[in-house]
Specification:
Shape: globular
Strand order of the largest sheet: 4-3-2-1-5-8-7-6
Largest sheet: 8 strands, mixed
Order of helices and strands: HEEEEHEHHEHEEHH
CATH class: Alpha Beta
Structural class: alpha+beta
Radius of gyration: 17 Å
Strand content: 15-25%
Helix content: 40-55%
Amino acid sequence: MSEFLPLSSEEELKGEICETMRRLFNRGLISALGGNVSARIPGAKEFWITPSGVFKGELKPEDLLKADLDGRVIEGFLRPSVETPFHAMIYRKRADVNAVVHCHNPFATGLALAGIPIQPITVEAAVVLRKVRVVPWAFPGTDALANLVGEYIEGARALILMNHGVIGVGSNLLEAEAIVETLEEVAMTQFVASVLKREIPLIPREDMELIEKLYKV
């Protein structure tokens, strides 16, 4: 489908992917060579994804690769992200998702390793994140991980990959980026509170129900 779209649409999308990577790198959510982002034009059967082995803080649109929904590279010269399989799986499973962000959030990943679930401690946690699922360990870049992600992503906005990092999805890049940033902010807040207080006060159940009605979550 994307071949019938104006070239400027895809070029703009590629530029947005690079800008997203720069912001995530500056926030410390991805490292020089770790983390990846992909996005597609709504309804497209292909997506653009960041390469492997290239400094993530200074990516250029020409560095990106286009892959189909089976994860096969159809355009580009560099090596695609090793996590291309789970990006492709998400797009196959979720027609509503047009952007996938994978970061190595230290606090969110650390809480998962400690067996501590993300709780509704802020309005943002309730509205933006909803329920955060933890995906069991599977080796990065494998079909095993892609299949697990495909199972756990149903109905979810954010996932934590055990011993690995996080995934945020959205209808566009801004939404997916907001998911992983909010996840880390909530995880940091929860960690600080747990260090100082054994029982952390959560948003009351009746107010959670009101939030669900007001924000249609």
